[in-house]
TrEMBL record:
PANTHER family: PROTEIN PAFC, PTHR34580. It comes from Cyclobacterium amurskyense. The keyword Acyltransferase does not apply. This is Bacterial regulatory protein, DeoR family. Residues 7-62 form the HTH deoR-type domain. InterPro entries: CBASS_pafABC_assoc_protein (IPR051534), DeoR_HTH (IPR001034), HTH_11 (IPR013196), WH-like_DNA-bd_sf (IPR036388), WH_DNA-bd_sf (IPR036390), WYL_dom (IPR026881). The keyword Transcription regulation applies. PROSITE patterns: HTH_DEOR_2, WYL. GO terms for molecular function: DNA-binding transcription factor activity. It comes from the Bacteria.
Length: 243
């Protein structure tokens, strides 16, 4: 029986992993649980025999059949503590859309916690203090919308005020987001400049999401960053363009 417990925990974790992603490869599952791919194949067959409708897409990976619902996942106390800590960190973020949406999500998550966990998380919440952005300043409210435009390949029209106070209107193809010094920055292909540019979200004055969709850019964020490093390695004092 002692040997069955680790496998039972792995099968439960695999279900969570399959719910969290549209497609998961056997290698990704094996790497996460530090077992062989052959072991994962056996685990998948076990889950299928137990009635879980797992869909196998040849050459791609595994997913759970559309519409199939699994009961809410139970959180360990450590996982609940991590969520409460993340809540305190997100509250200090300068993008209003992120803080509002996270508050909504964390409320739903707290609803499935056990009563003893709720008591402990409430205590922990009162004993954690995040000291950055002590004034609770909110400088933007576009992060969540821009995440959707990245996922949906939607064109965006923005009025932008650059750091040197130059005003411009841009049609952009959102590509990726990163955060630095408490500010969010959007990487996007600018149709005006015909090249990729970086736009600080706190410099966006107005934003309109267009109905038009653009073709996905054939590169990953990592490839983009590598191109930037190659471009600026001889001039390391030049910052990434934000106009």
């Amino acid at each position: 029986m002692a040997e069955d417990k680790p496998r039972l925990a792995r099968l439960t974790a695999m279900l969570t992993q399959l719910q969290a992603r549209k497609i998961v490869t056997a290698k990704e599952i094996a790497d996460k649980h530090q077992v062989s791919i052959r072991t994962i194949y056996r685990d998948i067959r076990t889950l299928e025999k137990s009635g879980i409708p797992i869909v196998t897409e040849e050459g791609k990976g595994y997913s759970i059949m559309e519409g199939y619902k699994i009961p809410p996942v139970l959180f360990t106390q450590e996982e609940a503590n991590a969520l409460i800590t993340a809540e305190q960190l997100v509250r200090k973020n300068k993008d209003l859309s992120l803080t509002e949406q996270f508050e909504s999500a964390i409320t739903k998550i707290k609803a499935v916690l056990k009563s003893t966990q709720k008591e402990k998380t409430e205590l922990l919440s009162s004993r954690i203090q995040v000291r950055n952005n002590s004034e609770h300043e909110k400088t933007s409210s576009y992060l969540i919308q821009l995440q959707s435009t990245i996922a949906n390949y939607q064109l965006v029209n923005i009025n932008y005020l650059s750091l040197d106070q130059q005003v411009s209107q841009r049609e952009i193809e959102p590509f990726a987001l990163y955060t630095t010094n408490d500010n969010w920055v959007l990487i996007a292909f600018c149709r005006l400049r015909k090249d990729f540019r970086s736009f600080r979200l706190d410099c966006i004055q107005n934003m309109e999401i267009m109905e038009e969709h653009f073709s996905p850019h054939n590169m990953s964020l990592q490839q983009y960053l590598e191109q930037c490093r190659e471009k600026y390695q001889s001039t390391p004092d030049i910052p990434m363009t934000q106009v």
